[in-house]
Q: What sequence folds into this?
């Protein structure tokens, strides 16, 4: 379901398909950090938009006193448009605020689990890349092997570029291939779960 209903992302999408899809708490926190910055930018833009709308209302109100009938009608129409826009703005702001609150809730829950939390954010996000990418590439390998029995050459090339290819990624690939041949393949699961962490789902 892709309906936004005023949100950039719904709580469910954030918890399962965005931050929740990350393989490490550090990776999820970094993604949430970006999502939060985007929504805060939207709220700041809404403040600016409201100021411009107030100025437009003042100018339109002044034109209501015009001796020209057409000018008065234009002013009335503009005030009607501004009133409609204000209702929409208030609603969108409330949705953005709700999204910010959910993102911050997720970040608070994840914070104690972060491996690189002592570092400044920029350094922590960089430090998390190696482990996050390794887990992501292993997950991609599992998906390809489970669905089609082989890994596309371009994806395999990306996997080989990772510094942990020989020690972690290739052994995981070999294990998956062996399991698929014997009919006992099981997809790995992350050691942590954002939905469970925030009490969104029991995930049976």
A:
């Amino acid at each position: 379901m892709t309906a936004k209903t005023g949100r950039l992302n719904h709580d469910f999408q954030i918890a399962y398909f965005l931050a929740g899809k990350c393989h490490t708490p550090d990776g999820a926190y970094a993604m949430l950090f970006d999502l939060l910055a985007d929504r805060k930018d939207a709220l700041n833009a809404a403040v600016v938009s409201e100021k411009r709308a107030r100025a437009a209302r003042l100018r339109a109100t002044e034109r209501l006193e015009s001796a020209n009938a057409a000018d008065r009608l234009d002013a009335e129409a503009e005030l009607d448009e501004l009133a409609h826009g204000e209702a929409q703005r208030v609603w969108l702001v409330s949705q953005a605020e709700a999204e910010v609150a959910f993102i911050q809730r997720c970040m608070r829950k994840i914070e104690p689990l972060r491996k690189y939390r002592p570092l400044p954010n920029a350094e922590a996000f960089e430090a998390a890349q190696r482990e996050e990418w390794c887990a992501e590439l292993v997950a991609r390998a599992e998906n390809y092997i489970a669905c089609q029995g082989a890994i596309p050459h371009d994806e395999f090339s990306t996997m080989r570029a990772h510094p942990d290819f020989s020690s972690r990624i290739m052994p995981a690939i070999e294990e998956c291939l062996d399991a698929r041949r014997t009919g006992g393949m099981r997809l790995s699961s992350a050691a942590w779960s954002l939905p469970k962490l925030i009490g969104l789902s029991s995930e049976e």
In short: Helices lie at 11-18, 25-63, 69-110, 121-127, 129-148, 153-161, 165-182, 194-197. The mean pLDDT is 93.
